[in-house]
Structure of Putative competence-damage inducible protein:
Amino acid sequence: MKAEILAVGTEILLGDIVNTNAQYIAKRLADLGITVYHQSVVGDNPERLLEAYRLAFSRADLVITTGGLGPTKDDLTKEVAFEYFGKKSVVHEASLKIIEDYFKKSNRVMVESNKKQAYFPVDAVILPNNNGTAPGCIIEENKKIVVLLPGPPFEMKPMFEESVVPYLKKFEQGVLVSKVLRVIGVGESSAAEMIGDILDTQTNPTVAPYAKEGEVTFRITSKANTYDEGIKLMEPMEAEIRSRLGNDNIYGEGNVTLESVLCEMLVNKKLTISTAESCTGGMVAAALISYPGISSVFMEGAVTYTNDAKINRLGVKKETLDKYGAVSSEVAAEMALGIAKTAGTSIGISTTGIAGPGGGSDEKPVGLVYVGLYINNQVKTKMLKLSGDRQKVRARATKQLLDWVRRELL
Amino acid sequence: MKAEILAVGTEILLGDIVNTNAQYIAKRLADLGITVYHQSVVGDNPERLLEAYRLAFSRADLVITTGGLGPTKDDLTKEVAFEYFGKKSVVHEASLKIIEDYFKKSNRVMVESNKKQAYFPVDAVILPNNNGTAPGCIIEENKKIVVLLPGPPFEMKPMFEESVVPYLKKFEQGVLVSKVLRVIGVGESSAAEMIGDILDTQTNPTVAPYAKEGEVTFRITSKANTYDEGIKLMEPMEAEIRSRLGNDNIYGEGNVTLESVLCEMLVNKKLTISTAESCTGGMVAAALISYPGISSVFMEGAVTYTNDAKINRLGVKKETLDKYGAVSSEVAAEMALGIAKTAGTSIGISTTGIAGPGGGSDEKPVGLVYVGLYINNQVKTKMLKLSGDRQKVRARATKQLLDWVRRELL
């Protein structure tokens, strides 16, 4: 089966946003063994959009669109698709009800134009939108299939996973089985080098590295007749990759995050934790609290941005601040100890650093961050030298601190 | 002049990388007043690539490609373009010399295939590559122009700025001037309805709405002979949009964030602030601390996830917690007051809510969040009913609280 991805939106043509949807869908179609030869972008213009459908269906059997399902008159993707297929649309009562409820629940006024989002041909497959008002849909006609998805990635991705993937499975020939290994503490090029010969000689299973902010993932994919066969096929490669990269560096598999892995360990081991943050300013606490169920072990966080707050809240000594400065190993240690003691937790963690862009010096440059960890009645610190802008330095410090705690609990 | 952007590379079709080049080039062409109606992606396949050139030149005068200028046999963008234009290529000695020097300098062995990168038609305009081995080029023939650029963004962008922009200036007809208005507190469909007649009748300037997580932006674009004329042309429309949407709802222009706008206000007004968070767990503090220079006004944040922490850290009364529960207007008020008093700040803000997925009840469902604001010696609270998963509820609560503080400071 050949597919095309068609993004609709003048904001992409103007370069206001990056078309990340195309990449997401392309990757998932590749996983499903569906071939993509073309991706296109067209604006919110009915003539060019109709022409884009004609072109796409002249080359492919399946066209997946993103964007243009909104309530405004600019949003035409659906209407032009119906025109292309010669279909009339009527109100889909179940969708209308959901849209009405959505507005009620969020205390917003539903306007007339929102109703447009509930209009579909009677034979369309409706794709529910659990994260917005625009449902998607699938139309199948004479072996041509169009899948219409909303533009915002946080609406599109869940809809794709929940409704489109199960639908497309029926076209799958054999099964593709994938497993993602999540690696932290090894750079992408080092990681790729460590398994260079595997990358060069891969056939089935295949392995693809992908670098994300501070992490590398390896997706192993095998093609087989059954799921179990596929899993079996990838086992030797997975074992080899794990042994080359070091098992400690692989923090999880599949759709997990570093914080969820750490939080699960904390909850299972019943280890209480508290945080004392300066430069990260709440990011460490926010990451931990993203985990549902963390309330049984997360006790308290302090964002002690000023010296006074460090002294009053955490009992950091004024002399320590005077002698070593707020950004120092000594202060990180007293912060971690201080929050653990006042919050009465088994673990206390801390950050203090220079996130920039200002505030750096030769001795203490932007990107210098000390992290502290109180655990097993001992306090330790680490010095991190991080690159990137203010947000990156803060995010990287958060990640490295959480990873440090994870490794301590292995 | 009409242009198209054509990215060449199987790695984009497979979803291994995001096509950020298209966005960069689209934005720069818009700046130059060059219209883009289509963007496409095609793989490293000679037949489909030739067809892509034919299609693109049937719709546009200028085609800008990225990718496929490398030394391997897969890299065909240049060769197929020469074929399309019926041009022979010969070695370009100056380019060959640069490539040879590049290898010498980086102590790498130059292989035969690298010479391919120095082959061009005699009448091509060569675009030097100061960040890699592949030169780009421009071919102009019968009023059709192809610009061939390398794929890696760190090679493509400087080449575009150094060589392509000066070349394209000669085709510039007037300028496109854009301004983005950032709206919060009004949904996309309501906002679009409020200016429906403007959206319907727009010609020059134009206005385009775009929805992002909890916000809507309106991009006004005018086409004029000079920048000043363009600005003048959009003034009446901007004034009208501002008056329809309500100036309070427009929090900023251009590339700003809600938190940066609020933090600038706080710093300018010298208003100190502190935060007490339960369900948002540090996100409010982290958002404020994302602003460089916030240290002059942000004093302290408390992540008081447990009742004990609320009592000990913030002086929330045990009776209040017992009587109304942790998720209540009363507790939000005591938290905001408590943090402002202990941190000694002019403003104290608080959050307490049920982010889910568990913990909800009929009376207090998931998504119920109370936010508190202590300001001008008064404490107020607001009840929010938010939709979405745990992360969305927390992010939306953060945004609405920050927006509330912003409105109080107007």
In short: Chain B touches chain A through 90 residues (CB under 8 Å). Residues 2-171 of chain B form a domain with the Molybdenum Cofactor Biosythetic Enzyme; Chain A fold (CATH 3.40.980.10). The CA atoms of residues 39 and 172 of chain B lie 20 Å apart. The two ends of chain B are 44 Å apart (CA to CA).
